[in-house]
Amino acid sequence: MREAAFIRRNTEKWRSYEENPTTDPDELTDRYIELTDDLSYARTFYPDSNITKYLNSVAGRMHRGLMQNKREDQNRFVLFWTRELPMLFRQSHRLLLVSAVFFGLACAVGWLSAANDNTFVRLILGDGYVNMTLENIKKGDPLGVYGREDGATMFLAITANNIGVSLRTFVAGVMASFGTIVILFYNGVMLGAFQYFFYERGLLLESVLKIWIHGTLEISAIVIAGCAGLTVGNSILFPGTYSRLESFKRGAKQGLKIAIGLIPIFVVAGFLESYVTRLTLPPVVSAAIIAVSAGFIGWYFVWYPIKLNSGSEQ
């Protein structure tokens, strides 16, 4: 972007910061984040320009204001979860929808493939898992796999694995989104085939009430990780007015924040899978856990970002 265009695009914002100072710590932090992003861009493309010196001066004054505020340290952590991350999700809702639709189609492919090829489930899930589950079905405990290990061991292994899947899905976006799409497709096909396996044996409802106790958070988080990866891929494919490198840096930063934001979700999902899924719960209790999990995902990742964004525009 030419320097004149960069200045023209942001002059009004910078002037409002100068003419309308604030002592509100949340607003001050938001302004500082935006201003330092602009300063970073100016340092990269106009290192010797007066506009870079000006932005550096304004950012310095804002930083001193933040340092003087006693709430700054704790507030920055709260701000990330209550404002910064939800606002990022609002910007990424279109890609979140793309990720969800693609994952859903992959699930349908897995279901239909398993329905039309009786070897497909073994191909996707492996002979060992299928044979073990068939044996558990004979014993009257089709989902006994969740009670094989002690809770602590399962929790650590599952949580680490899920976080790893999330980060791989995000990092795979550097392949112009192709790597992310492949991971989403594989996981979607696996889920579809997995659910058909239980449907074929008349155990679909039982499996849903058991598996989705943790799966609601776990699968939702994988879809959201797909959104993070597509954010990176889109920044490479569609740089807009930025250079491709600058666009990639911005997309990678945004995608990484989304991926990091999923860590608590995977921790809770790992806890549920390790300590709750193994229990024999009344159907109404299982359904309640699933509903609460789905409600939280819909609220935090969809409704709240929209509400927060609409409030900031008023």
From TrEMBL:
UniProt cross-references to Pfam families, sorted A to Z: SpoIIM
UniProt xrefs under InterPro entries: SpoIIM-like (IPR002798)
Sequence intervals crossing the membrane: 95-114, 152-171, 178-199, 219-242, 254-272, 284-306
The entry's keywords: Membrane, Transmembrane, Transmembrane helix
Superkingdom of the organism of origin: Bacteria
PANTHER family, per the entry: SLR1478 PROTEIN
Protein name, per record: Stage II sporulation protein M
Record lineage: Bacteria, Pseudomonadati, Bacteroidota, Cytophagia, Cytophagales
